[in-house]
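Collaborator request, handled under Task 6.
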Amino acid sequence: MHERRIPEWVRHSPAPSVRDFGLLAGLEAVVRGILISVFPLIMYRALGDAERVSMAYFLIGFLSLGAGLMVPSLIRYVPRRWAYSGGALLFVAGAMLAVQGTPLTTIAALACNTVAAVVCFICFNAYVLDYIERVELGRCETSRMFYSALGWTAGPMAGVLLMEVWPPAPFVISGVAALAMLALFWALRLGNGKMIARARRPARNPLAFLPRFFAQPRLVAGYLFAMIRSCGWWVYVVYLPIFAIEAGLGDQLGGILLSITNGMLFAAPLILRWVQARSLKSAVRIGFAGAGFCFATAGLLSGWAPVAAGLLMLGSFWLIVLDICAGLPFLMAVKPSERTEMSAIYSSYRDVSGILTPGVAWLVLLAAPVAGIFVAGGAGLFGAFTIAARMHPRLGRPRVRFEAGSLADA
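Structure tokens returned to the collaborator:
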């Protein structure tokens, strides 16, 4: 009798929609986007020089890689809803630590944000696969990008501008946005995902597929494309603000240029048409060559700081082109029977680039100024350009249809 008085949406919560996941991703974009250009600045102010900043990022990169490998195992013992909630609260903890401003708390804040991003990313994707039908995944990715665009475009510039008005402002906004994200998560009542029947045999360890991975040159090349592209973004996001400070261009330039760059995401359909008009091999090679030339030239012309900054921004536009097309060679080379395990290996490129870039930067800074990192980044991008020469000229045409969902590898 009493059950009839209970609203249906309370007894049986509706399944989350594509829009719900887009809103959740949009709030996370605000949490992370407003701090992406702030962290390099506060790290530089707290540690005093670019060499120490590189070492801190290098060590935190190992922490991120370890967290990414541990989260799938952790979720077997900790309910997924608590794992996601813990990640959201780590964002809040990172914001609170960053406000303190000491070297130790600043490093701890960056570590909290890095681990939080990894935990929330893994849980978010698991929920999407649980609740969104396969045919709707493309629309879900488009919705995620649409709702995230404002946070990633306005966030970097807003962060550095607000920090000049009131230093804790970007961290307060990030913390509040993280709490709003957590509240929306619980309002959606995602729980621990859909119930899945017990497997008949233990899951295969992706690490056991490493020999198979290295035995397939096309997979290795595709992984290198994604990893080197990610290294280019690390150089742009972390070391451009430091270069701007040391060159006397101000603390705000890095965040402003990053916001302008992210605004190019709205031109993705036009870039997609450009990619479709040529072979995948040609698009990938042009992208790496353009980015490599701009980064290397910026390092060589570092004496003209405004020119160097402009070249780096131009190089970042080519990185966006690579965000659209450089992930496709790997996806096209994976055998259907190995898709799950190879995807797990492929997803590690972000963490590997987060270790490799500051590690190489730290070595470069032992003998050269920050501009040397731009030259090293350009050399790496030219290396990918050389590797791409071995791609099949007909790869990606005419049977492969490019979709906006490929931006997820950015």
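The cover message to the collaborator said: "Residues 8-12, 195-199, 402-410 have pLDDT under 50 and may be disordered. The two ends are 53 Å apart (CA to CA). Please let us know whether this matches your experimental observations."
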